[in-house]
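Reproducibility note. Readers wishing to regenerate the assembly model reported in the main text can use the exact inputs given here. Chain order matters: entities are listed in the order in which they were concatenated for prediction.
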Amino acid sequence: MKSRPVAKPRRGERKSKRVTILDVAEDAEVSFAAVSKVLRNAYGVSDGLREKVNASIKKLGYTPNTAARGMRGRTFVLGTIFPDLRNPFFSDILAGIGAALERTPYQSFLGIEVHSTAPALIQSMIDMQMDGLIVVGSTEPESYLSKVGERIPMVTVGYHLPQITTFDSVNNNDAQSARLTVQHLAKQGYKKLVMLSLETTIGNVIEERERGFLSQAEELGLAGAKVVRAPQTLRDIQVAARRILDEDRPDAIFCWTDFVALEVISVAESLGRSVPEELAIVGHDNTMYCDFEQNSLTSIDQSGEQLGLQAARLLVERIEGRTEAQHLVSQPRLVARNSSAHRG
Amino acid sequence: MKSRPVAKPRRGERKSKRVTILDVAEDAEVSFAAVSKVLRNAYGVSDGLREKVNASIKKLGYTPNTAARGMRGRTFVLGTIFPDLRNPFFSDILAGIGAALERTPYQSFLGIEVHSTAPALIQSMIDMQMDGLIVVGSTEPESYLSKVGERIPMVTVGYHLPQITTFDSVNNNDAQSARLTVQHLAKQGYKKLVMLSLETTIGNVIEERERGFLSQAEELGLAGAKVVRAPQTLRDIQVAARRILDEDRPDAIFCWTDFVALEVISVAESLGRSVPEELAIVGHDNTMYCDFEQNSLTSIDQSGEQLGLQAARLLVERIEGRTEAQHLVSQPRLVARNSSAHRG
DNA sequence: CTGAAAGCGCTAACAA
DNA sequence: TTGTTAGCGCTTTCAG
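Running the prediction on these inputs yields the following structure tokens for the assembly.
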């Protein structure tokens, strides 16, 4: 016996049927094309029609099906890619992106390179027909990013390539970050400087900081300034810190990001080295943990919020038609706290 | 003069034309339906055909258009919603979700309630035709979440409603978190306990912890145990901590999450109160900052990674057909460090 | 100013 | 086992 021809339940059955543009058209007693025009703010719609349609939209609680939209035009969805979530600095960037998008029709979703690679995430976002991408702290080669930029509007944060034309970028002046640090430490009377840097490179951010660190130290006549690189895991940082403290015996350490600096303080403390009397520590990003009394960490503020804001602004501009590349660089500032206070 | 009929450039022009299922079919010399079947692992495809198609897919670098997929069936995209990114605990949850999804065809994107409300994010995700949602630390009412659960497969983390049938949940036993804390503090010899809790409720997580705290204190005969609530901003936490320290004068404070505990340590230190001799501090979530020597914060570990892993697993099960609700509760454990060490 | 009609790339029922 | 076909909900010409 054949089953009777019922409305096929399929998988999607559980979802109560969506309100579509046709339902709105019917309710408003207009053609569905008219509804589409109102939705897109297209040219040539009378006020009366617009009002009727908007009333029906509200009444029925209609929201456009983004997937369907994506098949023809824009989705008004942007993708943002972060390397991880552990660094609280990223939440500042996100706040900036949110602020920039607040009064626009755009939404942003995040992809995190935690168990996915950046290329996989980027491909997924393209497959979802997202309108543009903000790529933060990428470690991918320039050639790859350039190709992505040809396929979809893109802005990088932390990957400064002033000559590139296929995407925009927003950056902190990372060399300047290191210069400010060295100047500050020198002024406080510290003389033997080590920079605890990152093993894997992030765009050209890390190189820039190392470059600024070494050149400024040289200019100020601080002999023996040295760069040591370590991976991002706490274990490796601990080992590196211990070795620096035992072997290089600097009186100041500049760390590429705050949590590394906090770990170095931790190691120094467990080794009985007093901060800042015997050892100054400076971090980078000025995250909320710097302010705690027990850390009181001098740090470089690169205003993640501003970076995110500008990135989102540039991206929307690109999506809406700009074709010449823009590359923004913002100036960091040093926030002095106890961890680099002494040594008059 | 009319413009000549060129291939219309439109907005999407910049994007080099996508490889579609038709291109693959042509290259493999089969019908495009055959390609779709291979893609979906559908029943009734010969090995020869499958191989030919897979070769063409690889050769052409084809990836399915998720938007088009979303119009008919599944997208294999999940949405995860976090209240914010500042709490490093969330990155543990994310790691768990990533681990669970690693060997599946599913991808997860994040929405953060920073400038968007949860309902707006949820609606966007539904509009993108995502297959399911993981909602973490929501403050929305049960009635609303229940309605969402009827429309789309959903799992909540941090919203334990054992009776609800429209979605699954994964939770830490939050009452037990507080009980463990009180037991530990009592054993260490601390007697006057205050819990520094959150003003706005997160699911029922906060209530549960408060309940466990008060009942366990009573059971152990610790008179005068008290709950104080404060908003999540550093400023408010500072004010509250100062007031507690000045007025309530407890010898131990249990904080609902680690960064609050760190702020309390900071305030205590600036007030000249020594931790743990005069004052014990216990946090919650056992985030990486607890381990730093300068904090050495006793904390409750609720294994965010496990919570995320289970949530993703349940969600995939639901998407693939399970209809009876599942509600998981995991047991926390206390990690003792210096901040609650003394008071023999 | 409004509506009719043609697809976008895919899934899944159905026919061969 | 394979191919044909009918949409999914929307944008965007193009005619009226």
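We highlight two features of this model. The CA atoms of residues 255 and 287 of chain A lie 13 Å apart. Chain A has three domains: 21-63, 71-172+304-330, 174-302+334-340.
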